[in-house]
């Protein structure tokens, strides 16, 4: 059984944590998903108080580590002296993903050697100021590390994660329960296009995004 | 300031509550959004414990009442003798909306006189067994009452709600922060198409969905 860690902190963006929590939480045979935080309870950006399931260091043993976001939450977490030192991640053996502003954590952990990523449109300038090439697309991935931007974009990296750990059938099975009624084809096309975009870009003359390598056949 | 009530109960489907909570919670000048429940704390289907902000009866004074869902949560809520009697809703002065299985609450409250609705694909048969015409589309609305199906479909009735209370600009402003990076046009087209679908169906020879009347100019 795979072990998936969702990393959160005080003032996390509600939907960015809860979307992946719910999509992944419907399956308890292929993986176990847990919310990790520095405290036993966390407070969301909109004021919900939720429990955590383990300390941040548990992320180091997970098969996949998904960082949530937070306009105020990410800078506050990065400013805490214990936060970054909790992590000793290895993108050779772990899948790592950020949504929206969580990309700044990946950057600080040295997980973006390509210096190319995406984030929430409102956070673009902050990321560019760090010297990153910020692409205007919902999913950017390089080998085992993916960044995503825009809350509803969570379906793309979550799909990427499941397809990387298992296969396309498991990805479709995982995302199907959350797709709008009567729009399965539209959304599956959107998702598959995004996951394949990296491969097409890589094979083109301009290597924009050396992406999603583990999705290649 | 408008008052929006999100009705929840134990074993609510996490994302169905949290998506509308987050999308609507980003605005605290045009409306106030609160989670109402029969208990001070509720447990989600996937085991999160969250606080509520008021009792169920507060829904009766709200401008908009949004029912969440829950495969086990909705039947359990309906079986509780105090649940349905808490509500005295008036669709003439209130906007009412359900997502996925929450439609059963609307049916029990007599809010679906047209006997036409939508829900999560997995809940279709149960709703058909009640004698409802269940359409295979993410949003079905009749005057001030809307039903939606499939977790990510939340953007449609949430957009419908905001556009009904304010206008299309406020709806776009409200949904923009959650749209995937680089896909604003795709998602806005999807949302606008869905909100207009009712009008087009109404004007056609087959009056499938006398819908979204308050969105008409």
Protein model, in words:
The structure is a homodimer of 217-residue chains. Helix content of chain A is 32%, strand content 18%. The first copy, chain A, is built from seven helices and ten strands. The first copy, chain A, has helices at 14-25, 73-79, 103-108, 124-128, 155-165, 168-175, 184-203; strands at 2-7, 31-36, 41-43, 49-51, 64-67, 95-99, 116-117, 133-134, 139-142, 145-148. Chain A is globular and about 45 Å long. Chains A and B meet through helix 1, strand 4 and helix 7 of A and helix 1, strand 4 and helix 7 of B.
Overall mean pLDDT of chain A stands at 90
Overall spatial form of chain A: globular
Instruction: Show the largest interface.
Output: A-B, 43 and 43 residues
Query: What is the subunit organization of this protein?
Result: homodimer
Helix content of chain A: 25-40%
Q: What portion of residues of chain A belong to β-strands?
A: 15-25%
If strands are numbered along the chain, what order do they take across the biggest sheet of chain A? 2-1-5-6-10-9
Low-confidence stretches of chain A: 199-217
Helices, strands, pairings?
Two copies of one chain form a homodimer.
Chain A (H helix, E strand, L loop, with lengths): L1 E6 L6 H12 L5 E6 L4 E3 L5 E3 L12 E4 L5 H7 L15 E5 L3 H6 L7 E2 L6 H5 L4 E2 L4 E4 L2 E4 L6 H11 L2 H8 L8 H20 L14
Parallel strand pairs in A: 1-2, 1-5, 5-6, 6-10, 7-8
Antiparallel strand pairs in A: 3-4, 9-10
Helix pairs in contact in A: 5-6
């Amino acid at each position: 059984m795979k072990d998936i860690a969702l990393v959160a902190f005080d003032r996390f963006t509600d939907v960015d944590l809860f979307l992946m929590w719910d999509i992944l939480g419907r399956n308890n045979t292929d993986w176990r998903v847990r919310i990790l935080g520095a405290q036993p309870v966390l407070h969301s950006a909109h004021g919900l108080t939720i429990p955590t399931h383990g300390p941040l260091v548990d992320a180091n043993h997970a098969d996949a580590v998904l960082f949530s976001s937070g306009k105020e939450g990410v800078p506050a977490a990065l400013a805490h002296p214990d936060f970054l030192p909790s992590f000793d991640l290895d993108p050779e053996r772990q899948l790592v993903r950020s949504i929206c502003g969580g990309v700044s954590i990946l950057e600080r952990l040295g997980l973006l050697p390509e210096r190319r990523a995406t984030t929430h449109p409102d956070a673009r300038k902050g990321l560019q100021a760090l010297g990153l090439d910020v692409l205007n697309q919902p999913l950017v991935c390089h080998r085992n590390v993916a960044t995503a931007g825009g809350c509803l974009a969570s379906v793309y990296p979550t799909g990427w994660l499941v397809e990387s750990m298992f296969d396309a059938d498991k990805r479709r099975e995982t995302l199907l329960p959350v797709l709008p009624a009567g729009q399965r084809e539209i959304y599956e096309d959107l998702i598959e296009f995004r996951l394949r975009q990296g491969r097409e870009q890589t094979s083109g003359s301009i290597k924009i995004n050396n992406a999603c390598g583990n999705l290649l056949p």
